[in-house]
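Changelog note: in this version the structure field was regenerated for every chain. One regenerated record is shown below for reference.
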Amino acid sequence: MNHAELIERVARLQPVERAPFALLSSGAWAIIRKGSGLENALSLDPAVVADWLYEGYTSAGSAISWVGSGYNNIVVKAVGGKIKWRRKGTPDVVEPLLSSVDDIAAFDPAVIADDPDIRAIYEIAGRLVEREQGQRLVGGSMWGPFTLAGLLFGADALMRLIIKDTVALDKLLRFSAELYLAYMQGYIDRGVRVIFMAEPSASGDMISRRHFEQAALPYIREIYRRLSGKGLILGLHICGDSGNRLDLIAESGAQIMSLDYKVPLELAKRAFAGKIAFSGNLDPVSVVQQGTEEEIRKLTIQSIETVGTDSGYIVMPGCDIPPSTPLENLQIISRTVNEYTV
């Protein structure tokens, strides 16, 4: 059974002989380790960048290869916003694009396909799919509608809308949902089959369970409804503590929930059993980046033993890994997973 088949079975909650290991996104890690910044990579031959990604995920032993990872804020640029590229790391949004929700009328989500950097990312995606030849699934990711809305309108302004103007909130979130779908369609058209949504602003560290259910969940569900039935594997990642909303996430339409290290695996197993697959929980900094070989092996085995190999679990860092993460640490996780027997 190759990596692609293993992830397919886990996502469908089918029995597997071992838990797979996969990185979450980590495109910045895969590109920066080759000596290039993310901005520069988009000016290179897409085949070269696809080879870098292939090499990185192959060397790490990841069951998923990711493309476009680290470029999430590029969508804001593509509709007229300002971003700042970092020499190392991912680009930042400089300021909100929208001063009023009414400004949305001036923007068409379809224009993002004309952005030259986004076209370069799509070309890299197609080359990476060809490079993998079905041995591993290729994944793409983007901010979910709630987080993207905060980048477009300002996080504080978004939070005020939750309390003061639910009509304007709905308009803003529908727009950001359309941006998400427009961006991900370019990946889908090029054969990318693992489609992830990152919603860090929807965590329990940012909003209450009630506000998550009212302001974030409906748009997550709508996106997954529109993407279902297309042969995709749909994933959701929420940074921070999402423990008090796992039951809602289990009914969101996601097939895989990626957990931050703050969420106990025992809690996730109870919430998701027989409903959706889940991944994550290894601390990306203190364990994956900075841990000793003994610590990494111990915590990897502990993760598998906590949930078993029949629960739809993927061993994965609890978030994107820092670009300076040693390859050797990832290989320790991969070897431990491959050698583990019940």
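Spot check on this record: The longest helix spans residues 166-189. The chain has one domain: 3-339.
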